[in-house]
Amino acid sequence: MNSFNSLEALPSGEWNSNIWPPFTQVPLSEPPERISKASGALLFRDNKPPLIDAISSWWVTLHGHANPDIASAISSQANQLEQIIFADFIHPPAEELAKRLSHATRLQRLFFSDNGSTAVEVAIKIACQYWYNKGDSRSQIIGFEGAYHGDTFGAMAVGERNLFNQPFEKMLFPVKRAPWPATWWDDESVEQREEEALLTLEKLLKTPTLAVILEPLVQGAGGMRMVRPDFLKKAAELVKQGNSLLIADEVMTGFGRCGDLFASQRADIAPDLMALSKGLTGGCLPMGITMASESIFQTFMDKKPEATFWHGHSFTANPLGCAAANASLNLLENNPKNYKEFEARHIKHLKELTKHSRVEKPRVMGTIAAFDIKTNESKGYLNHAGKQLKQYAVQKGVFIRPLGNVVYLLPPLCITNEQLEKCYKTIENGLNDLF
Ligand SMILES: *Cc1c(COP(=O)(O)O)cnc(C)c1O
């Protein structure tokens, strides 16, 4: 990774000497800014104008910061029951959430954990033990090129092998991979790439496979790589024909992000397991959920001890998280237009931006819009172009965090037209001034 060394060190400010920041090349980065208050789409800084949070604080803040409905749901729950061991006990907010999510996803069983990575870990473990419980020794898992499923070991293993997990490569279980036929506006070769991907998947599925895991419609961290709903539908059919289980990692795509309540619904696929987090609590509290079909659950009902799912987290189904999630679902149910009609808002602006000569591969899915900056540098996460644009945008009051040369907007649903326009205008000005 010589690109590490070739990066010029940025001017250093004050770094907190106790905090170890996530996903940050500390010696090459500016110290983080302090945020003590946020509201709607705005982040308030000390002695500087506010920033528009154009990426929903790492894709979690769904309705906007400090949403009063969610805040009051958390507050009243905190005065009622803040935490309870979830073996031996259940509680009303979990019961309500379970009923609503199983209805919404058509997957009957909920297994609670703490975050997106654990929701994925649980899905993989359930899939694995499902076959074990049936006396079937299959072990192959299939994922997709470019996938990201989280940072714990199992989640790293099913994700793309890259710079981020290089030090752990020896410790990761083997995963077979099919190509991900990512597409964009006016993409002329998509059909051919889809066909090749499906052929590879079909071939791999000839070996008994315990699960196929994918991010429905949009691969997030891999670079906002979008596929056509029809491709997913065909892939899901192959998984069914191949007698395997389909895991939909909807950690990013769930809760309206892709224009429908779940990306699986927009693609018309019926996964056997689904991982949820991020927007689940409206982005207010950490919580993960793995949805499973009733038929999977039933294979764990044998009385012999090894058929039990021996897995649980201290904060399983934390009541505050459940209360936030229920309040967030109310907001989604009461205002479905907010996510159903977001795509049109992006399209209008992105069409304009596409005229810029540095913009390539424009694409939109629901509330997510993305494009690549045309650059001569090698692509990937360490590409400079996005970093430069980020610095520019932050100076102008818009917080973006490009993935290498991939620029994307993934704003909270509450973002106003004026704020969204400012995001696009700032990006356009940045492209003009910088490149
Ligand atoms: C963010 C993400 C994860 C991991 O979630 P964490 O809460 O960060 O552990 C898993 N899968 C996808 C698709 C994600 O976008």
Question: What do these coordinates show?
Answer:
This protein is an alpha/beta fold and 435 residues long. The protein has two domains: 3-66 and 341-434, Aspartate Aminotransferase, domain 1, CATH 3.90.1150.10; 70-334, Aspartate Aminotransferase, domain 2 (3-Layer(aba) Sandwich), CATH 3.40.640. Helix content is 36%, strand content 16%. The strands form four sheets. The chain has a seven-stranded mixed sheet, with helices on both faces. A four-stranded mixed sheet has the order 1-2-3-15. A three-stranded antiparallel sheet has the order 13-14-16, covered by helices on one side. Strand 8 (218-219) and strand 9 form a beta hairpin. It binds pyridoxal-5'-phosphate. Residues 115-117, 120, 148-150, 215, 220-221, 249, 251-252, 277 line the site of pyridoxal-5'-phosphate.
How many domains make up the 3D coordinates?
2
Number of strands: 16
Report the helical percentage: 25-40%
Bound molecules: pyridoxal-5'-phosphate
Structural class of the helices, strands and pairings? alpha/beta
Radius of gyration based on Cα positions: 22 Å
What portion of residues belong to β-strands?
Answer: 15-25%
Query: What is the CATH class name of the largest domain?
Result: Alpha Beta
Question: What is the third-level CATH name, the topology of the largest domain?
Answer: Aspartate Aminotransferase, domain 2
**Which CATH architecture of the largest domain is right?**
3-Layer(aba) Sandwich
Number of helices: 15
